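In this section we turn from sequence analysis to structure. A common task in structural bioinformatics is to predict how a protein folds when a small molecule is present, because the ligand can shape the pocket around it. The inputs are simple: the amino acid sequence and a SMILES string for the ligand, here flavin-adenine dinucleotide. Study the lines below before reading on.
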Amino acid sequence: MSKSFTREEVARHAAEEDLWIIIDSAVYDMSRFIDLHPGGVFPILELAGKDATDAFYGLHRQEVLIKYDRYKIGTIANEKPQIEIRQPGAISKVPYAESSAWMGFKSPYFTESHFKFRAAVREIMGGLEADFRELEQTDGKPSDELMQKLGAAGLLACNVGPGPHLRGINIPGGVKADEFDYFHEEFARVVPRGVDDGVIGGFVISIPTILNFAKPHLREKIVPEVFSGKKRICLAISEPGAGSDVANLRTNAKLSADGSHYIVNGTKKWITGGRFAHYFSTAVRTDKGLSMLLIERSEGLETKAIRTSYSPSAGTAYVTFENVKVPVENLLGVENQGFKVILSNFNHERLVMLMGASYAGRIAVEECFKWANQRKVFGKRLIDQPVIRNKLAGMD
Ligand SMILES: Cc1cc2nc3c(=O)[nH]c(=O)nc-3n(C[C@H](O)[C@H](O)[C@H](O)COP(=O)(O)OP(=O)(O)OC[C@H]3O[C@@H](n4cnc5c(N)ncnc54)[C@H](O)[C@@H]3O)c2cc1C
């Protein structure tokens, strides 16, 4: 049971080596933390033995309090917390932070299946939130264990959207494959942006090329490997000289003399998830046009990290191909008609980006609202400044 203290008792622990503070009626022993505080010793020392609620919330997000919960030693007698601690996966109460249907409004789009899916995904993702935050902070590679947890929960397959690929997948919330539509959105809500790209970004934009254009034996091998999180795949289209101008790409694939394989040479740039990928769905130039090839990581294929403004967890890579041998069965679609495959695939990518951006927008609004309410400057909360309220109104 949590210990109970009076404010006078807390006030007696006001020395650097014996330092307690109060945040929203909870008592924290900061003696062991003070030297670890990223903002230095002084701000905590100044509040030793006192109520630090305003000072804390003026500078930190609530997640920090949850992270350092281990320093909590009790509560103030006869006082109740005034600030609600957001439970992982809970529906936000901030205006516009969630789809209106989640906030109790009637929607023609959302049915019981969406609600069941949302509740189940939030629960799964709530359990993984700490893994994602850790990844965000360490800039690490999303682990095989994490990928396989997402795979086992059916979330990798669901991220690809509706379609026959969902048959046989254990969809969260018991949703049936043919009930699943594009309004079953949830993933972007929880996973930080760069990490999201490392976990699903490269995969979600490349796997449709396999689902829709690979030969059956290839599809039957690769799709289960990728949906279970055991293998990773990325989309390798862009090159240093061919970004928007995709048709100008130079990576080439020459058929071997015996016609059994292509020999691929060239460079790809900005390839999301490329550093971690086992498979590369790759656009190449063949004798009479463009073609798509599924290339396995093998001799002659190398990946190098590209530094980006978001997390290295996205695995953004340069990919170089030097005489890489690719079996002809790995052709996706028809030889020299790869541009159709590329364009068909871009449609899916655009929709995914749109949905991610829509949720990212909601999260931005939510964070701004929360911050404007808790941050005090010039003696008042940010939200008390008309110019800030005007900006928030503009965001909605
Ligand atoms: C974080 C990140 C991840 C990526 N992941 C992948 C990936 O996984 N796989 C992959 O293949 N690629 C990936 N890309 C590459 C991405 O597809 C290209 O960056 C994009 O196609 C633009 O190409 P570019 O950067 O060469 O810009 P450019 O083609 O040089 O364009 C520069 C600017 O000019 C504009 N522009 C170009 N041509 C015209 C025109 N004709 N009319 C008007 N405006 C024009 C463009 O809109 C752009 O604003 C990624 C890029 C980034 C930044």
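The two ends are 44 Å apart (CA to CA). As an exercise, try to locate the residues that line the flavin-adenine dinucleotide site and compare them with your own expectations.
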